[in-house]
Write a structure and sequence with these properties.
By secondary structure, this protein is of the alpha/beta class. The chain is 30% helix and 16% strand. Helix 2 (76-91) links the parallel strand 4 and strand 5 (96-100). Helix 1 runs parallel beside helix 2 (76-91), helix 3 (147-166) runs parallel beside helix 5 (201-219) and helix 6 (242-253) packs parallel to helix 7 (269-278). The protein is globular and about 55 Å long.
Length: 356
């Protein structure tokens, strides 16, 4: 029986275990350059015992930013700063992928430089508000991307992926979940286009396929993962025919031989089983445990074959040595939601390890 503590080969990298540190926005890339800080170096190095670290969301272009103080990967300075993070993780024996995320319509002009405005597949606003340095603001209708701008956005993802490899990342994860740009193209309520980038499911899948293919061609498919969250209503998303649409998407991507598929699961475990069967490669599962964070019981999903690896979010945030704690059955530090986003070292790098 395979367990979470057995090694696995992922994209040519030998991972020590099958426990994944899920991508988690922490909003601590302070300063005008949107660059990682020394505090972020410490944070990631502390968690290098994960089989795989997936970084917080990183915008591949200035217009891709959706929240305050999130880091980018589109300038030479950002490449240099991220290199200090990846070097520190590698010194501790870890493997780290960069999650590239374009926020699309989930943004605000106050968050964007040089007079930029949020963009999306269609000029359809999401219901809700977003936090800015000036407080919470209503989400406004994005500007619809032109055909040329769509192609430029695909190129931006590929260029950012090249910069991620230059910065020392072992690969990239493309964020196609949680209502951000790739997901916005997939969903009919946010993509109302009638051209080749919208309309039926085939058209709505096109952007995701082009981004994944472009990035795979840029850095090698064995260095590329994709995260999806079928049916997740977060950020005002609405989808139907999930098994059909996402099954077709995975069928189109299966031949690329990607490093992995990362599923952020909803309450439908049957859909998970369907997508697991449809995907021929490594399958990472961020299981649905709402309202509780993913806990030790999720390890059985590897033992019963539901997944090859399991991703932990909040529990990894609070327990820098999480694989060791899972192996020993605890104890576990309790995450402090008040320190999840922004702030200093408190609730970030001061959670104690067992050795302390």
């Amino acid at each position: 029986m395979t367990t979470a503590f057995d090694p696995i080969v992922l994209g040519g990298k030998h991972l020590a275990n099958r426990v994944v540190m899920a991508p988690m926005a922490r909003s601590r890339a302070y300063g005008p350059g949107a660059e990682p800080t020394e505090l972020m170096v410490t944070y990631y190095a502390q968690r290098a015992s994960a089989g795989l670290i997936v970084s917080e969301s990183i915008q591949p272009s200035p217009v891709g930013q959706g929240y305050p103080d999130t880091p980018g990967l589109h300038t030479p300075g950002q490449v240099r700063a991220w290199r200090t993070v990846t070097d520190a993780v590698h010194r501790e024996g870890g493997v780290i992928f960069a999650q590239l995320m374009h926020a699309g319509r989930i943004s605000h002009p106050n968050l964007l430089p040089d007079g930029l405005e949020p963009v999306g597949p269609s000029a359809v606003a999401a219901n809700g508000q977003i936090y800015t340095h000036e407080g919470r603001k209503d989400l406004a209708a994005p500007r619809e991307l032109s055909e040329g701008e769509i192609r430029q956005t695909v190129a931006d993802f590929a260029d950012s992926a090249r910069k991620a490899i230059e910065a020392g990342f072992d690969g990239v994860e493309l964020h196609g979940a949680n209502g951000y740009l790739i997901h916005q193209f997939l969903a009919p309520n946010s993509n109302r286009r009638t051209d080749a980038w919208g309309g039926d499911a085939e058209g709505r899948m096109r952007f995701a396929i082009e981004v994944v293919t472009g990035v795979a061609e840029a850095i090698g498919s064995d260095r590329v993962g994709l995260r999806i969250s079928p049916g997740n209503p977060f950020n005002d998303m609405s989808e139907d025919n999930l098994g059909e649409v996402y099954g077709a998407l995975l069928e189109r991507l299966a031949g690329l031989d990607l490093a992995y598929l990362h599923l952020m699961e909803g309450p439908d475990r049957d859909l998970t089983a369907h997508l697991r069967k449809a995907w021929p490669g490594t399958f990472i599962l961020n299981p649905f445990t709402h309202p509780d964070p993913t806990g030790p019981d999720a390890l059985r999903l590897i033992e019963d074959g539901s997944a090859d690896m399991v991703a932990y979010g909040a529990l990894f945030l609070a327990n820098p040595d999480l694989p060791r704690r899972l192996l020993s059955g605890g104890p576990f530090n309790t995450p402090d939601p008040a320190t999840f986003y922004g702030g200093d070292h408190r609730g970030y790098t001061d959670y104690p390890a067992l050795t302390a």
